[in-house]
Design a protein that fits this description.
By secondary structure, the chain is an all-alpha fold. The protein is built from 13 helices and no strands.
Length: 387
């Protein structure tokens, strides 16, 4: 494919969004399909429910179709972006990038590749029979994958911070947004990846490595979160937010989703293999706090983008394009995913809701609606960028 002159690393967000949407449709299978004796729904649980031809069968079929569609788009867009980036690295634009604030946008690359590991994990679980019987042999390879993406995340970050600490040339006039928090997003993605084998493996060594990796990258993410959100809001209060980077107000939503799921997984991992008693009420309080902050930032970001006419300018107007627009997809995905965690681990797990009852499905409706709007915006942006 021909190199696009306006390419920049933020274009990887298109692939990231597609991967996130694929995983989001797995949430229906994860929480609606019974999977006793397994921490997640697999082919062996899904197929028997599928052939019953009950209402759940329709949900399974639709979910599987969208899992495949968005997984395909994720891989297609990842290949496209990787080819574009390899050409981009030879340009003067790249040299300018790595000497400016925007160097941090390189974090979208390990972020998206970490998502790829999660997408393949979901595809394997849903479509490969008896995969769970050999999953313990797969966890070490998953850990290796997360170690690789974690290594490149740290390499980019340390290069970035070392340059700034030596030269002191951070441009605060261009920091009137929260785009710098893309680095935290990447660290949180690696963290939640490590937490999967940390929670699900029955091998204590694999379990311990996973939990340590999750806490290592999660701790780094939280430390940077405190620093960068403070700096970002200070500059926004002084200068007003950059209109093009307005969606960055929502980046806290996927970060909180990833860190929240990481904490849930670590809690289960400690309970299963470290004999650590876990209070069910702690899951209610944890998911409630995270969902509350997500709602607050969701409302704030939406109000700001409505007031500065972001949607009319960068979404509806065919002439105005910005790769940052794809940053709208991840918050929608993340809100839906964590909404399912809140309903099932926060409410159902504590007996507040009874699974598969009318109130249970009513609680799901707002999150399903957000997922629907996210899918619509994804295809609107994809067609607008012609990728």
């Amino acid at each position: 494919m021909q190199y696009r002159e306006k390419f920049n690393p933020m274009c990887f967000l298109a692939s990231l969004g597609a991967g996130g949407l694929s995983v989001s449709f797995f949430m229906y299978l994860m929480f609606l399909v019974p999977h006793h004796g397994s921490p997640m729904a697999t082919f062996n649980h899904i197929f028997p429910e599928l052939i019953k031809w009950e209402p759940l069968s329709a949900v399974i079929i639709v979910s599987q179709i969208f899992i495949i569609i968005f997984a395909f788009l994720h891989i297609q867009l990842l290949i496209w972006n990787t080819k574009q980036f390899l050409t981009y690295k030879k340009t003067d634009a790249y040299k300018q990038l790595i000497s400016s604030n925007s160097e941090i946008t390189l974090m979208t690359i390990p972020l998206t590749y970490t998502m790829m590991i999660n997408v393949f994990f979901v595809l394997g679980a849903v479509f490969i029979p008896n995969l769970w019987s050999i999953v313990e042999y797969l966890f070490p390879f998953a850990l290796i994958g997360f170690i690789v993406t974690g290594f490149f995340s740290l390499k980019i970050l340390f290069n970035y911070f070392s340059r700034l600490l030596i030269n002191g040339n951070f441009d605060f006039t261009k920091n009137n947004n929260l785009s710098q928090m893309i680095s935290i997003f990447a660290l949180a993605m690696v963290s939640v990846g490590f937490a999967a084998p940390g929670a699900m493996s029955h091998n204590l060594t694999i379990n311990a490595i996973g939990i340590f990796g999750a806490l290592f990258f999660g701790s780094f993410a939280i430390l940077l979160l405190i620093i960068k959100i403070t700096m970002g809001f200070k500059n926004m209060f002084e200068q007003g937010i950059s209109v093009e980077a307005s969606p960055s107000l929502w980046i806290i939503i996927p970060i909180l989703t990833l860190l929240g799921i990481m904490m849930v997984r670590v809690s289960f991992g400690l309970m299963h293999n470290f004999d650590s008693a876990m209070s069910k009420s702690s899951l209610f309080t944890l998911t409630s706090v995270i969902l509350s902050v997500q709602i607050l930032f969701g409302i704030l970001g939406y109000k700001v983008m409505k007031m500065n006419r972001y949607f009319e300018t960068y979404i509806e107007d065919e002439k105005t394009r910005s790769s940052v627009s794809f940053a709208l997809i991840c918050p929608g995905v993340a809100f839906m995913v964590f909404g399912m965690f809140f309903i099932n681990f926060g409410l159902t797990y504590n007996g507040v809701l009874v699974k598969n009852t009318i109130p249970y499905f009513i609680m799901m409706l707002p999150f399903i609606y957000i997922q629907y709007k996210t899918v619509v915006y994804f295809f609107k942006l994809k067609s607008k960028f012609n990728i």
